[in-house]
Amino acid sequence: MMKVITQTAEYEGAGCVVTLGKFDGIHRGHRQLLHKVLEAGKQGLKTLVFTFDRSPLQLFSSDPVSVLFTEQEKRDYLAQLGMDVYVSYPFTKETAAMEPERFIREILVNELHAKKIIVGTDYRFGKQRKGDVGLLAAFAAECGYELEAVEKLKYKDEIISSTRIREALKGGNMEDVAAMLGRPYSFSGMIVHGKSLGHTLGFPTINLRIPKEKVLPPYGVYCSKTWVDRTCYFGISNLGCKPTVQKEAQYGVETHLLGCTDNLYEKYATVQLLHHTRREVQFPTIEALKEQLSFDIEYAKQYFSESVHQ
Description:
Elements: E1 3-5, E2 16-20, H1 28-41, E3 46-52, H2 57-60, H3 71-81, E4 85-89, H4 93-96, H5 100-111, E5 114-120, H6 133-143, E6 146-150, E7 154-155, E8 158-159, H7 162-170, H8 174-181, E9 185-190, H9 197-201, E10 206-208, E11 220-228, E12 231-240, E13 252-257, E14 268-279, H10 286-306
Parallel strand pairs: 1-4, 2-3, 2-5, 3-4, 5-6
Antiparallel strand pairs: 7-8, 9-14, 10-13, 11-12, 11-14, 12-13
């Protein structure tokens, strides 16, 4: 079971292998680092992920910061991978002012007892981001750790990054998003009761609330896969605020599961968005909406009949 700590002084144990970064979305580049950590852990070292409890942008700006992965999603994913320790270190003004040499000696060596450090080649840290791979390498012999700097992964000849994933999400390019993440973009949470509008229209749906900090692709309809209790359902999901049938601007994701008649309320679900089929629009009548939903369902059935997601 993965242990979650907020202060490196709480770490208990002998030497560890540690990777450091933001890990927003835990994309394929991040996973490359994490798998190297797990491999090193087989040599008897504890496996540890070090990140900050919030984006540095939040310290210097009052504007909300959106994320590809919520904090809970990040923790759940790392625990599933088999990490031993997750450090969610407080990012404060004191942290931002810490000299990189002090971070190495006090945090990585004295408190975490790092024996191996694995980071991307562009990793920066410390006051004014002055610390880099070169500095970590310079302290390796003195501080008794091994350093491994890992080259960035590429997709379509460009480096995979959270920024690129966000841009693809903004354009609704879910296939590119999945290729860079290594899995489809998803929303997770408890299935909650909606207003039964889907049942009224003849297309029952399950509803999830979306955390306000989560990055959203365009409002619209998506071919989707939904996982509930390890069972996979194909379906269509509407992301948005349903302008034809409700007046308030509250957004969410509702999913019609093809051929499903199970009662899934109060169960935990993960909805993966695979393919963006159309933008959300306001229809002139309920009948026009029902006609479009029928078309959307037939489109999804055709998509899954031809798709590798079967």
